[in-house]
Amino acid sequence: MCGIVGYIGRRNALPVIIDGLKRLEYRGYDSAGFTILNNDEKYLTYKKAGKVKDLEDSIDYNVYTGNIGIGHTRWATHGEPTDINAHPHFCMEGKIILVHNGIIENYKSIKTKLESEGYIFKTETDTEILANFINYNYKNTKDFVKAVQVSLAGVEGTYGIACLCRDEKDKIIAARKGSPLLLAVGDGEFIIASDASAVLNYTRNVIYLNDGEMAIITKNSHILKTIENKEINREIEVLDMVLDQIEKGGYEHFMLKEICEQPESIQNTFRGRINFTTGVAKLGGLEKVLPRLLEAKRFIITACGTAWHAGLIGEYLIEQFCRIPVEVEYASEFRYRRPIINKDDIVIAISQSGETADTLAALREAKKFGATTVGIVNVIGSSIAREVDAGTYIHAGPEIGVASTKAFTSQLMSLALITMMLAREKETLFSKTLIEMAQELKQIPDKIQRMIDRKEEYKHIAERFKNANNFYYLGRGVNFPVALEGALKLKEISYIHAEGYPAAEMKHGPIALIDENMPVIFIAPKDRTYDKIISNIEEVKSRKGIIIALANEEDDNIKNYADYILRVPRTLGIFAPILNIIPLQFLSYYIAVFRGNDVDKPRNLAKSVTVE
Length: 612
Ligand code: F6R
Prior knowledge:
Layout: E1 3-8, H1 13-23, E2 31-37, E3 43-49, H2 52-57, E4 68-74, E5 89-90, E6 96-101, H3 107-116, H4 126-141, H5 144-153, E7 159-165, E8 172-177, E9 182-185, E10 190-193, E11 205-208, E12 213-217, E13 222-226, E14 231-232, E15 237-238, H6 254-260, H7 262-270, H8 290-295, E16 298-303, H9 305-322, E17 326-330, H10 331-334, E18 345-351, H11 357-368, E19 372-377, H12 383-387, E20 390-393, H13 406-426, H14 431-453, H15 455-464, E21 470-475, H16 480-494, E22 497-502, E23 519-523, H17 530-541, E24 546-552, E25 564-568, H18 576-594
Parallel strand pairs: 16-17, 16-18, 18-19, 19-20, 21-22, 21-23, 23-24, 24-25
Antiparallel strand pairs: 1-4, 1-10, 2-3, 2-4, 5-6, 6-7, 7-8, 8-12, 9-10, 9-11, 11-15, 12-13, 13-14
Helix pairs in contact: 3-4, 4-5, 7-13, 7-14, 9-13, 9-16, 13-18, 14-18, 15-18, 16-18
The structure holds fructose -6-phosphate (F6R).
Fructose -6-phosphate binds near residues 356 and 403.
């Protein structure tokens, strides 16, 4: 959570910092701020509760003339989102200026120690404590780099920081442990940022910092070191990404753009990985662990939120088609319950950002027990991608909207490809079936496009339900996790209470809530559970619930039961969740828009949850 930008170079620092903060705002947007070292050698700081736009609207760019500065957009962990708690933070003497992403877990003991030395604190943040701790160590070391190193060695928790020092005005020091940070190397300029979107406007040359590493940058140089002061040599990587991919491109919101990008993002997931004639799926990144995957007694999938829902669908696919037992674990629960992990287990981490703290921690736990770890990740070069034994990138492209959409469908496509690859190797599916699957897979992008072309229909239903207070989402089999994901999407951006259930579970309790005000979305494609789901619809209908059925385009029968219909193209079960989620994404999106909500920046959320 939180976005960091630091600039040092030949341009005015502030426009670069504000531009970067706007692009990082998906990471947190409850307050923002910056400090610029002006040309008269004075530091100017401005910070404010609210979004980066509010900050920008209340400043005069002409006042900020310097070309060194740091900035921050915040998602509050310690202390409310107020002006005073916004970053940057200063030490008591004003010598150390700091922006920080992460949580200092031992902040209390550091604070107590500093208070006994006469330090006084103005804010409720752990960041102010760290700024003072660096100042305290600076007094002893008289060296900015050493002071940061000594301080960070005494810190428990996570951090990505960018730091200035009044006594060594020519540098920015950045460091990371558990929170992503990269150094962009431009022509006579450097940018520190939480991710690549903040730097692409200026350069594609970057160096990713690893945990326990720091960058010391001046106008003419950059030095990489570990916190223990060992020098590091690292090649510059050239980002394979263009700015277009992270801009709105005429859409009103990133979320809408990303929903509509799915024909293309799905294609990018399977491109070059499937032979449509032979049905052979090949995922290069998994090849080196393929023998271990085939011998495994068990797969454990671990993830959070939407990625966890993808994992649940993965369980259906891998168990059904590959006959490998699969368990799906909330990453946040997994490591705290002393899980039984064996050397021949495969632990698969699914993560869009590749930075989710809980997923990363679950992965590390699995590694400790010697399991083989596999990543299904979107962000290239992210922590999870780098730490797994093997993995596959989903290639969905940058996902900026806080509510995950295209990453979800690409995660599902990756899981379908893995399923096809393993089923062929294990001979649990006939090659004829695999060819049928491959042929169907080819049509998935067009089928998604068909739904995008129907979006006005979905919008119409959204308008009808924009004032609802509750929603149920019900599905069976592989569509049960789709129901969970549909409900999560609605909650996140419309703030309407919604719950997903397996349709048959209704009568074990939740049906008590059904009355004439309760809209119930049934995911009812023509598959082998169709007749059962029709019975479940009858149960709700007879209690006056409002039926919204997600049904196949050619299903006329559904008109006898449903008050409203969300039409979807028909496909094979292995790909059905990829199609069925699309109308639900649109429904949530339009309901949120009708309610006047900020779809791309829903309240209380952040895109990448890098704190526990
Ligand atoms: C929901 C959403 C979150 C994320 C979750 C995991 O729309 O975006 O539930 O899915 O925070 O994030 P990643 O996939 O980055 O690990």
